[in-house]
Amino acid sequence: MAIKEESFRIGCGRYLQGKNYTERVADEVIRLGTSPLFIGGMTALSLTKGTIEKSLEGKISKYEFITHTGTCNDDYARKYADYAKEKGYDVIVGIGGGVIMDLAKLCGHFAPLPVINVPTSSATCASYTPLSVRYTDEGKSLGTMHFDHEISCVIADTAIISGQPARLLLSGMFDAIAKLVEIKHRYKKELEVFPLGLDYAYAMSERSFDFLYRKTEKCISDCAMGEITFDVENFIYTTIAATGVISGIARGSNQTALGHKLYDNARLLFPRETKPYLHGEIVGVGLLMQNHFNGEAENNDLLISLMDKYGMPKSLSDIGIAKTEENYHLLLEKMCGCSAMQDLDGDEAKIKLHKSFDYLWNI
User: Are the beta carbons of 230 and 114 closer than 8 angstroms?
Assistant: First the structure.
């Protein structure tokens, strides 16, 4: 199995989670520097800017907010990194969803400066993981950059995150349960030797899978009623922090397989068609194929019922990929050649993939 990053980047420097924790941003900035550059999405800043500015009063005098509406890529990140150095800012603070989280990390990498991430949803674990997924302005995948260091701090404000739409909550759930489903792609309990740490990643992913499988609908209901229950707190922690730890223990590449490779290839081959859909939504569609490949297609029953109940995509056509013969062969060829398949033994694995791809194609 190929290891993209040799080190175990298991956590962030500090992970803080609680109600109204956006009020703590200034204190965390002071631990790292004196002059923060805030980069956020339009909606995220509308939810947080006032609270953050109040937290800065009397503590930090030099700061600036930048609203970013594009994708995450090297050009944007270098522009903001150069701007931060030019203006004398010494901490990057990202505020928003997965794109902003990845952009803040990439900007901090190029500067180089410490990074604080303030996620406003739990749709991915992007705020926590030491990597950035990059895209063209049109949404075409440009690949992932892995960093040799962890994020300085993550502040998860449950008062904000619990107000996210069910669509974002479900997206985070699909992305988180993917860890167990995809680890099974390579991990066989009867084997005795695995890459270092993968046993622990498997055990943790089993725990998070069980919790999310049981509690997702309750958490959707709790959030809809404005209640930050213990289950909601645990849900947010699981989809951001615990999922990020699992990724770090598995060293990134060993906990991704067909679900995330479908995501990568869908964004690469069909950027315009898939642009409206969230990371976890596309990964969720890929998990239906992964469960079939694992010989556990029965586990798709609950996933499909959740997708149907909440209007989530469950098929390739639901994420904008038309069912044409050309698209069939184009996507299948990419899936057969992906790194997840290169780790497995030749023809038998490819035959299994063909069957699992056909299963997904016909949903």
Answer: no
